[in-house]
């Protein structure tokens, strides 16, 4: 009896749900960023003015920073859906976010979205950002390791381990 394949891309045609997840991630990330900035200003102020800061107070600051990062990690495990269950990011991994078209012109929205790391989405950038295979050098190294592993016999491995 043939079973139906699991819905790997089951939510691909659910843009509202995906937009909700992205909005939730963005809001939580901005909250965390603002919290980090606030704590950084406090620490910078204390260091700059050589103010004595009690160790418990400083530990509380770092604890609250860790808590903000943990909350962000927790919502990513739930695929950032406010009412979602913990799917370890499966929903988000089934969606790829890329610009809709290739262009050699500088795109200010893309620059803003990527913090000026990417100026335009062209034929040079697309394969680099969508790469799913290892680079040729890494593939060659991996093949070399596999060949070396396969050429050794069990006795050679045991004698090498006993020597160490």
From TrEMBL:
Record's keyword terms, sorted: Activator, Nucleus, Transcription, Transcription regulation
Protein name listed in UniProt: Mediator of RNA polymerase II transcription subunit 8
Species of provenance: Gongylonema pulchrum
Gene symbol of the encoding locus: MED8
Compartment list: Nucleus
A single cellular component GO annotation: mediator complex
Subunit structure: Component of the Mediator complex.
GO terms of molecular function: RNA polymerase II cis-regulatory region sequence-specific DNA binding; transcription coregulator activity
Primary role: Component of the Mediator complex, a coactivator involved in the regulated transcription of nearly all RNA polymerase II-dependent genes. Mediator functions as a bridge to convey information from gene-specific regulatory proteins to the basal RNA polymerase II transcription machinery. Mediator is recruited to promoters by direct interactions with regulatory proteins and serves as a scaffold for the assembly of a functional preinitiation complex with RNA polymerase II and the general transcription factors.
